[in-house]
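As the next step, I wrote out a protein sequence along with its fold in token form, included below for the reader:
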Amino acid sequence: MNEFDAIVIGSGQAGNPLVFKLASSGIRTALIEKEHFGGTCLNNGCTPTKAYIASARRMWDARHGNELGIVIPEGAYADLKQIKRRKDFLVQQSADKIRNGIKKTKNILFYKGEAKFTGNKIISVNGEELTAPEIYIDVGARPLIPESFKNINYLTNESILRLEKVPEHLIIVGGSYNGLEFGQMFSRFGSRVTIVEKENRLVSHEDKEISENILQFLKDEKIEIRLDANCISGRQNSNGTVTVQLECAEGEPVITGTHLLLAVGRTPNTDTMNLKSSGVGTNEKGYIKVNDYLETNAKGIYALGDCNGNGAFTHTAYHDYEIISGNKFDGKNKKVSDRILTYALYTDPPLGRAGITRQTALDKGL
């Protein structure tokens, strides 16, 4: 049994700073990571998608120079292979910094592999067993794949970033943050884009006026929007195309495209950890239940980041780290319930919001 003062599972936006904070405070810490340094944000989220959005904006500029008196000859096109190469370089730079930091920092022992609980505070990784009085789980989440789409060729926010050729016709199921960002960027790259949303408006948890504004500027860019799309399912065609079957108030009941992106939500990466052995409880969706201080029902075991269901954003994951760090090292009394959530949608123009929506405030009588 390898004994540590603390174990951190996952190197995302909560786990990484926590590992360095623990180690710099003289706490002998094991870091376990099965895939990428930096988690979703660095590898499949913020960094790569915003790199793509910057390229998409350049395409928009190239096509709208005349509006500012700049004549740009026809012929600009998006080289997705080069766009991907730039993105890969930016991601690798950041990952290398994390990797080198871990190597150089005393009190960190890194384990590459998948962590599974074999007891209350006993973790197995690569056949070795580790234990510590404090365990911090930061295993993140992955794309949710509905049953009706599992047997066809689909893209997720991860696999779409590996494409090297612009899709001819990209169908996106899901009209919220991920779906809208990818929809606008690939439309600007040159794809025909159809966004399918089951609700009667886009980003339905925003105020109605906001949803209507977003719908309008996306339509202005010739993006097709299908709302009120119920009973959605997919069919793989023999020629490689994909057909999405749907029931809408308006429009055809089927859409056929060359590529399909599923952007319908996330599910936590907790199902492979054998959490039952640890005594850690989860809710019906698999998210780890935590109290105001991010501690689970098993004393000394904490859950941070997307896997606890309290935000699922980069900034909320980092704030989870700040809660743990502030309370443990600085004598503070930071709580999850004191957090005012902020939201950002990186369409062009972008949306930023702090706190609740106007409609939520009215509904609460505030």
Notes: The longest strand covers residues 230-236. The mean pLDDT is 95.
